[in-house]
DNA sequence: TTTATTGTCTTAACCGTTTGATAAATATGA
DNA sequence: TCATATTTATCAAACGGTTAAGACAATAAA
């Protein structure tokens, strides 16, 4: 089929060793010999086999990324950043959507270990015991988990400070005069959802604001879930003046539902989201939201990963990223009252 | 490091051949021997090296996917579908965002050939000569291009019938009584943008409707581009009653801009998009748009790819997918006049 | 009893690289 | 001139699997 290093060596009239060395610049080779090798390689359209190479050097320059679903715009944006970093560092990214299914996760985990990827980035949000044990079974393999994770000795974690983010959101609402605040969040078995709820509760308590039971709704972090959550909220006897929605996807669904029901945003109802996905700037009205530093998150994930690949036995560390508020137009100041 | 087939063989007291055969179920092996092998493998936590295997069997069960950017929700959704199909067929997907940069594209192309992926899915939209020649240089490698492409003898193409889609959009607007129709499209060096514009023009001419010069705007398929396009449109002396926007991302930007400027959608201005991205159902108002059958597209891409991998010398074929209209609430019937 | 057949497993070559050990040729110094 | 360095390139053994060909018993057939 395609040319091998032997073919190149033969044509250049040198040994494969020499070819290897000139192509990798790994040892001095006389200028003229080099040229012969380059020319032979060129003529044969030679592309060295990374698989043979990997077998020998014991690394593949590929990383696996395990993510719940890239259908979620936040994940999509993050994956995008991660891919960028991988490219910059000379790695390939193999994308694995788990769809939250344990079987798919395990299957991918097996594939990735067999393919001998150099490391795995995990972004599955859930803190599910079975997932956990599946991962731990692969403890030999460098791993950084990006939004979740039981701290194991040899895995790094890097995550957004979601309780802080929730505080930021609530604080902003309060500063705008809101007191009657609702919450539509993600499924509680996902860490960020849990943290945002905790932050919400904490912040409300610190401000001495009551939390009305039917104003805190657990949903699923998806568009449709936001819609449903809002529907449920609108069916309450008395309505809040503002709602903190656990991510931008749900915020979009929620806004859509509210507007379809004729409630004006932000005049009648203020909404604040979480994630700061690209498109949230283009909602009508543009969404005020909490920004997760996605680029930074990706950069840290990759640099941490590379560090761990180079030094697998170092103790697992945990990095916390600070979110920040980005105000646009979906929350109004409550004037009267 | 990790156990090899030899370790397993040793521990089970058999040859590596036997181990290989029982693990791959590729030849009969006595029941008791099988058990010994399984147990040994289990005890050693053995994971066969796919890289060693690939070297021998000459395939990697991985596909590369070259895509402009997964930041665009349409691509993101498509990649998602593709990933699903890959998984189902036992392939890994390595994700390569080209960001429209030739250098990155070439670099990835090189990486992918070296990694010996079994095939490459190309979704770069542009019909750029240099890209073209880069790809052709790799003609040995199975390739299916998903939205673009100079037909080469040995590459398959599968694409959405975008001119048909544009017809559908314009027809719908006309049926709703619109006559003053504008168009905001993608960059003309991308095939879908070109086709949609062609379809727009064709459909308008067939209906004997005039196309006003400053009502056809070339933008960039991005959120912000849609916003800018709408801004430009709104600055015209006389406004259209409807606008056909070349994709949903731009439609979102356009709607946002229009609404920010106080024009009511669809009462004052109807909008129809293209792609039917998930989130377009959650716009305010929900977006009427042209649906590209993404799932079908992905399925066809993968099945075509597998066919080509199995039979690389067959003639390249071209498959056209039919879009369809999905009506929601962003276009209103023009009543009076 | 001898030969053929069947069932079960092993030997060894090969896939395409990298790399430590070593050799050949030439230059340098005494 | 000879011993030693230096420069340049080669040999051959891995790496971890797969698989064609063959080996060895045990059993069946002649």
Structural key phrases:
16% strand, elongated, DNA-binding, 337 residues, six-stranded parallel β-sheet, alpha/beta, six-stranded mixed β-sheet, homodimer
How would you summarize what this structure contains?
The structure is a homodimer of 337-residue chains. The first copy, chain A, has 337 residues and is α/β, with parallel strands linked by helices.
Walkthrough of the structure:
- The structure is a homodimer of 337-residue chains.
- The first copy, chain A, has 337 residues and is an alpha/beta fold.
- Helices cover 44% and strands 16% of the residues of chain A.
- Chain A has helices at residues 5-12, 16-24, 31-44, 50-57, 73-88, 102-114, 129-136, 162-175, 191-206, 223-234, 248-260, 294-310; strands at 62-67, 92-97, 119-123, 143-145, 156-160, 181-185, 216-218, 242-245, 270-275, 288-291, 318-321, 324-326.
- The first copy, chain A, has a six-stranded parallel beta sheet with strand order 2-1-3-4-5-11, sandwiched between helices. In chain A, strands 7-6-8-9-10-12 form a six-stranded mixed beta sheet, sandwiched between helices.
- In chain A, α11 (248-260) links the parallel β8 and β9 (270-275).
- In chain A, α5 (73-88) packs across α12 and α6 packs parallel to α7 (129-136).
- Chain A is elongated.
- The interface between A and B is large, with 60 and 60 residues.
- The first copy, chain A, binds a DNA duplex (30 and 30 nucleotides) through α2 and α4.
List the helices and strands and how they pair.
Two copies of one chain form a homodimer.
Chain A: H1 5-12, H2 16-24, H3 31-44, H4 50-57, E1 62-67, H5 73-88, E2 92-97, H6 102-114, E3 119-123, H7 129-136, E4 143-145, E5 156-160, H8 162-175, E6 181-185, H9 191-206, E7 216-218, H10 223-234, E8 242-245, H11 248-260, E9 270-275, E10 288-291, H12 294-310, E11 318-321, E12 324-326
Parallel strand pairs in A: 1-2, 1-3, 3-4, 4-5, 5-11, 6-7, 6-8, 8-9, 9-10
Antiparallel strand pairs in A: 10-12
Helix pairs in contact in A: 1-2, 1-3, 5-12, 6-7, 8-9, 10-11
The structure holds a DNA duplex (30 and 30 nucleotides).
């Amino acid at each position: 089929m395609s040319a091998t290093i032997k073919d190149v060596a033969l044509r250049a009239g040198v040994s494969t060793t020499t070819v290897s060395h000139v192509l990798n610049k790994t040892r001095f080779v006389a200028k003229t010999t080099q040229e012969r090798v380059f020319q032979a390689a060129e003529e044969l359209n030679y592309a060295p086999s990374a698989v043979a190479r990997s077998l020998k050097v014991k690394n593949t320059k590929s990383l696996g990324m395990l993510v719940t679903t890239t259908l979620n715009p936040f994940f999509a944006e993050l994956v995008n950043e991660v891919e960028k970093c991988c490219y910059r560092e000379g790695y390939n990214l193999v994308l694995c959507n788990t769809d939250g299914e344990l079987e798919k996760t395990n299957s991918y985990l097996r594939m990735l270990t067999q393919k001998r990827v150099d490391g795995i980035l995990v972004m599955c949000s859930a803190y599910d015991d079975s997932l956990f044990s599946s991962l731990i079974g692969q403890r030999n393999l460098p791993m950084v988990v990006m939004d979740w994770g039981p701290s194991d000795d040899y895995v790094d974690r890097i995550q957004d400070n979601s309780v802080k983010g929730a505080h930021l959101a609530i604080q902003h609402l309060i500063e705008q005069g809101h007191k009657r605040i609702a919450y539509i969040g993600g499924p509680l078995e996902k860490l960020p959802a849990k943290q945002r709820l905790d932050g919400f509760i904490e912040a409300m308590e610190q401000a001495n604001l009551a939390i009305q039971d039917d104003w805190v709704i657990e949903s699923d972090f998806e568009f449709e879930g936001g819609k449903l959550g809002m529907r449920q909220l609108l069916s309450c006897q008395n309505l809040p003046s503002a709602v903190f929605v656990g991510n931008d996807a749900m915020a979009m669904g929620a806004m859509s539902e509210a507007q379809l029901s004729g409630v004006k945003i932000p005049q009648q109802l203020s909404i604040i989201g979480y994630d700061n996905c690209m498109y949230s700037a283009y909602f009508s009205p543009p969404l005020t939201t909490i920004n997760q530093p996605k680029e930074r998150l990706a950069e840290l994930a990759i640099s941490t990963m590379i560090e761990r690949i180079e030094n697998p036995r170092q103790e697992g560390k945990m990095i916390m990223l600070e979110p920040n508020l980005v105000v646009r137009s979906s929350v109004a100041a409550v004037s009267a009252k």
